[in-house]
Amino acid sequence: MPRSAHRSHRAVGLGAVVLLALSACSPSGSSSGPGAQDVSGTVTVFAAASLKESFTELGRRFEKEHPGVRVTFNFSGSDSLAAGINNGAPADVFAAASARTMKLVTDEGHTAGSPRTFVRNRLQIATEPGNPHRIDSLRDLSAPGRKVVLCDRTVPCGAAARTALTAAGVELTPVSYEQDVKSALTKVELKEADAAVVYRTDVRAAGDKVEGVEFPESAEAVNDYPIARLENAPNPSGATAFVELVRSEEGREVLGEAGFLKP
Amino acid sequence: MTTGAETPRKARPRPPGRGVPLALLAPALVGLAFLLVPLLALLLRAPWRSLPEQLTSPEVWEALRLSLFCATAATALSLVVGVPLAWLLARTDFPGRGLLRALVTLPLVLPPVVGGVALLLALGRNGVVGQWLDAWFGVTLPFTTAGVVLAETFVAMPFLVISVEGTLRAADPRFEEAAATLGASRFTAFRRVTLPLIAPGIAAGAVLAWARALGEFGATITFAGNFPGRTQTMPLAVYLALQNDPAAAIALSLVLLAVSIAVLAGLRDRWMRTV
């Protein structure tokens, strides 16, 4: 199998890097926990679209802490990422926006070890700046003539929105089911839709281009975000180190600033 | 494709030197396999047993009906404005015609998603033109079936224009000139002489545009969104089904494959013979 050949090749390279790091000066003060030295190459992270801003920042810090290492991201709807991983996409880390989408991958035995929840996220209603349509609750979304976009029900934000709408007893016909949370938000940013049900982190990341509206039923639909190293990770040590960074104090700080809740 | 020396055809004289050089044959076979294996895989992995059930579900029919309707409407729209545009490009001379021609063909090479974004900025509720459509007529195009038709037209019309323009250039302009000498106006000459003359080119262009519209994904999902029965065409349904129901995605893909083969079969007289 070419795969195992690759593996051993990489293992040799890795060993050389470790040796070099040990024999050379190797200042042990370079923080970021155990295994910092033996990380090399490229770390490929598949992450939910809602993690885009915070993970991009964490990737930048990771590259700074591990000179020469590159982190590449694939941000998309968690369900399409899961489908990609299950079809053999070469990824090291998977961070999903719901336990259900992570389960798609664990069920196929593609994760190494059990996934750990690292943050949680709540929904908000995103409206145009200044909330011109005076949207204050989920019920206001069902007013006649309101153009509302939701995430598709296969995507975590769509599933959570359905749960919240059911909890509120609101029947809502959106104008579109978008394929991930960012495309739902974009429709509001471009003023094509009056409102979208997205995560509060997305509202915060969009700055003053949208306005967020809290609603009580969001408490019924809080998403757990699990992260896991993948079984067939081309770069296992890189994967471990990245997951460690995400779950570290530093990682929590970055994610907290983006508006994510502690697990 | 692999006609070796053992099957000589009487009709055509063979070029000198027998057999196919390996240096050409090997990459040719790789290319052939590359094009055919994915289609074969679709057939091999098709959920044949559950297929009748998959294909009779109302969602599939809704998506298929919408796809056929929108592709046909987009083709009709392309014909109405595209044929005159092709005529303008082929039969008139004005400064900047070459540039205009290049711009017309731009959607051919533009990524469809970019086309969708451009359409949003132009025809969206807040777009350059769209805001007036909304203010004056109360018309908003995003998230509507009309939006799907426009997105597909944007992507498909250049195929028609290029095809018709090519046919026009190949057609002898002296027929039109003769008609004009006999007193026909330029429009009458176009309608009575040119149009019948280039009909096969128009038909081929229309089929191409229709096929392109049927497969359109990027511009559609960007501009018109995704709502079952209103804007969810077959390619969108395939893409979203692949996430959580791959069997349904394969079934939907088979339908599109069948339609494509039917189109190809319809065009075989035009293309297959020219080999």
TrEMBL record, chain A:
Keywords per UniProt: Metal-binding, Molybdenum, Signal
Molecular function in Gene Ontology: metal ion binding; molybdate ion binding
Entries under Pfam families matching the protein: SBP_bac_11
Lineage top rank: taxon: Bacteria
Binding site residues for molybdate: 50, 78, 181, 199
Gene Ontology BP annotations: molybdate ion transport
The family this protein is said to belong to: Belongs to the bacterial solute-binding protein ModA family.
Protein name: Molybdate-binding protein
Organism: Streptomyces toyocaensis
Lineage, top ranks: Bacteria, Bacillati, Actinomycetota, Actinomycetes, Kitasatosporales
From TrEMBL, chain B:
A Pfam family hit: BPD_transp_1
Topology within the bilayer: Multi-pass membrane protein
Entries under InterPro entries matching the protein: MetI-like, MetI-like_sf, ModB_ABC, NifC_ABC_porter
Domain of life: Bacteria
UniProt keyword annotation of Transport present: yes
Signal peptide (UniProt feature, chain positions): none
Compartments reported by the entry: Cell membrane
Any one GO MF annotation of this record: molybdate ion transmembrane transporter activity
Coiled coil: none
GO CC list: plasma membrane
ABC transmembrane type-1 domain boundaries: 64-265
Keywords: Cell membrane, Membrane, Molybdenum, Transmembrane, Transmembrane helix, Transport
Transmembrane segments: 20-44, 64-90, 102-123, 135-164, 193-211, 247-267
Keyword NADP: no
Purpose of the protein: Part of the binding-protein-dependent transport system for molybdenum; probably responsible for the translocation of the substrate across the membrane.
UniProt xrefs under NCBIfam families: Mo_ABC_porter (TIGR01581), modB_ABC (TIGR02141)
Protein family membership: Belongs to the binding-protein-dependent transport system permease family. CysTW subfamily.
Name the UniProt record assigns to this protein: Molybdenum transport system permease
